Amino acid sequence: MRRVTSILAALVIAATTALAGPASASPIERGKRAKVEWVRVDVPEGPTAAKLTKTLKDALKQATKRADFGKTAGTVALTAKVVEMRTEQRGDVLRVTCTIVGHVAKGQGAKSRISYGGSPDKRDELEKQVLTMVANGLVARLAQIVRTTAPKVR
């Protein structure tokens, strides 16, 4: 009889825990997210500008999906500009350096920079990885700026 009571108590606890859910969900979980729009994404002119633009836009879009911009009124307009995109090979190591500056429309800006090395045989993968990392850092900082400076919606 004691075993049945213990099993029954465990089932009741499990059922109430599963049905209760979290006490306070984040804005992302409740579906109230700020609408984020990339107004302008600039890259330096050159033979790889089109590929660089596409890769950067994709990276910014993915980073924006994961970032928490809080609950704000209206749309958050952002811009990004690649200030530096340099690759240099020393021996058997290819080093990619990228610097991006971003701004919240009519607000503060942020800068993200990274230098990363890898195999020269995997140049495209390395450039994509560097752009993704620098975009993640930039978007995270811009989201923090928006959360702390934008008027809140209740």
Features:
Double Stranded RNA Binding Domain; 4 helices; alpha+beta
The largest sheet is: 4 strands, mixed
**What CATH architecture would you give?**
2-Layer Sandwich
How many helical stretches? 4
Order of helices and strands: HHEHEEEH
Computed CA radius of gyration, to the nearest angstrom: 22 Å
Roughly what percent helix?
Answer: 40-55%
The total domain count is 1
Shape: flat
Strand content: 25-35%
How many E-type strands? Answer: 4
Oligomer: single chain
Structure notes:
The protein has 154 residues and is an alpha+beta fold. The protein has a single domain (31-149), classed as Double Stranded RNA Binding Domain (2-Layer Sandwich). It contains four helices and four strands, in the order H-H-E-H-E-E-E-H. The protein has helices at residues 2-20, 27-30, 49-66, 123-149; strands at residues 35-42, 75-90, 93-104, 109-118.
List the helices and strands and how they pair.
Layout: H1 2-20, H2 27-30, E1 35-42, H3 49-66, E2 75-90, E3 93-104, E4 109-118, H4 123-149
Parallel strand pairs: 1-2
Antiparallel strand pairs: 2-3, 3-4
Helix pairs in contact: 3-4
Outline of this structure?
The protein has 154 residues and is of the alpha+beta class. It has helices at residues 2-20, 27-30, 49-66, 123-149; strands spanning 35-42, 75-90, 93-104, 109-118. It has a 4-stranded mixed sheet with strand order 1-2-3-4.
